[in-house]
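Recap quiz, item 2
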Amino acid sequence: MRKLIKTVTESRVWRSFFRHGWPDNPLDRSLVMTTNIFFHLHPVKISRKSLRSSYSLGLGVISVIVFGILSFTGLLLMFYYVPSVERAYSYILLLQTRVPFGQLLRNMHRWGAHLMVIVVVLHMARVFYTGAYKPPREFNWVIGVVLLILTLAASFTGYLLPWDQLAYWAITVGTSVAAYEPLMGDSIRAILLGGSEVGQEALTRFYAFHILIIPGAIASLISLHLWRVRKDGGLAAQDAVKIEPEALQGTDNE
Amino acid sequence: MNENTESFSPQDRQMKTYSLVELVKGPTTMVDRGPDDSIFAFPMVAILEIFLTLGVILVLLLMSLTVNAPLEDLANLYETTDPAKAPWYFMGLQEMLEHGHPTLMAVAIPTLIVLFVIAIPYLDNSPAGAGIWFTSKRGKRIALFSALYALIVMPLYIYLDTSFPIREIYRGQLPDFFLNTVVPALLMVVIVLLPLLVLSRYKPSAREITMMLFTVLFTSAIIFTLVGFLFRGPGFELYWPWGMPEGYSPWDNL
Amino acid sequence: MSEKEADKSVPRRSFLGMAWFATLSLVAVQGLVAILKFINPVPTGGFGGFIYAGKIEDFAINSINRILAGRFYISRTDQGVIALWQKCTHLGCAVPWDESEKIFHCPCHGSTFNEVGEVLGGPAPRPLDYFPAEVSEDGIWVDTSDPRSRNHHDPSHMTQVQG
């Protein structure tokens, strides 16, 4: 057995896949990070401080995980859903009553969407209160704010798709807010809805936004966001933690 | 600049094999660093991430098995649901709309808040204290004070403005623009900036000012969202979440 | 090339660079305009033509009748008739007529309007929009393609009924 494993792992085919040995020594533990697409986001060595769960609460990682779950469940839901005013609602009913695990998948997608909004907001609060937006991470904070807005947009556009009363009036109210924007308001609403009221045109457009445009933008920005986390030196927790005297000014006259 | 480009000319290349690429300001690598506190990222990070993924999937699965995603009747454009609510994360906006003109409440104020949030790292750009929750003990007290302040003042504002609405009391006697835009705008500015006046007596740092402003706005956003989502019933009037009339439950709107 | 000359004229290399940059920007702007034009909605059919509301006798004075197909209410007072669009001027909810209170009461944010659409309370910024109505021998015709918004109600918004 051991011999078989050895022949397989030392074969040229295996070696062309994995460019490192079993990661039980410093060299292979470094190689596993640098030669693997999933791990290359992480540094080879990481400070204990930034792993501490009371610091980051893992919120950024959880956001990515929930985004992954949403992409996966959303992809499966697309096998049944039709963005048509006449048929959307009946297909949701079909999904819930006849399709095995249909209701479960829809539930996971719905609750996952709510969870993602909550987690992303909490992640922003965490980054703010730990001061992790400070130089050199300023621009990554800006990307993060854009990601938060995109998360809300993804959830909002998905809200219309079941075409029930809840969806219809929530989107009517939501898009009417956009129309109050001075100068551009009415054209923004028209571009979103494809007409003056929420109808088939709006459903078609929201579908396109929901399944491709916004998730695509989110995925690209997440990549940029994570890449910059690495380039800016990982989590702020592992920076030299020392407060310069100027920053403490005023502390004395409490 | 000029010298640098010249050093790449063929004659120079033989004599000079180095050139100045960039000047970096900062301490040398080991200055002010404690003993190395890092560990190999593999397998620790991979294990943590796998556990987080499993945990998130488990939570979503349990939630989806116990609670079904809501689905109301087919969309009917002749009959608005009562109350008609936007998705929960926009209920803060819808609640704001109850208290002033839409251009102010749904466009001007949210735009200002988003711009402020984006600008945070440029307003507070000293790298001191990054990576520490609330930066200092004083920072923690400021955040706590700001959150408490918003927690008391905002519900009070919502309650008073709903019970004694200036807009309705003086309707017809004073111009609409004054009642619907000027008064609410002034009130909002005073409420948000009042704690900063208190803080300004203690020589606050930029970090502390942004922390107070962010905390007041963040807490207020949560309060407006909760009030709009949980405390608004039929006719969009204020009720206790457990005392809604007509069998309406705010949770049906998720 | 002496330094003096270089100051006056744009060197060929950077001129070509600038020309490229300008051309590419122009192409990009053109593409953007084309995309905007493409996604800007084209008018489609459906709601938005002349709708027959009914015979004038069907509408008693001081009554409100809903015409579902046209998404409007026919409100008749002693000054004439007005076809009020059901859409709330606040955030677009369909406003139902509350027969017991004799007002339009919007469920979204609690705006209220009287029988000719004037704002009585709530956050709505202007009276209900109306469609031009024609009263002829055979009844009331309403042009739903042309919603009119107004800041104040005026009797001229109503259509006179002869006889």
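Residues 12-39 of chain C form the longest helix (28 residues).
Chain C touches chain B at residues 68, 71, 86, 90-91, 93-96, 105-110, 121, 123, 125 (CB under 8 Å).
End of item.
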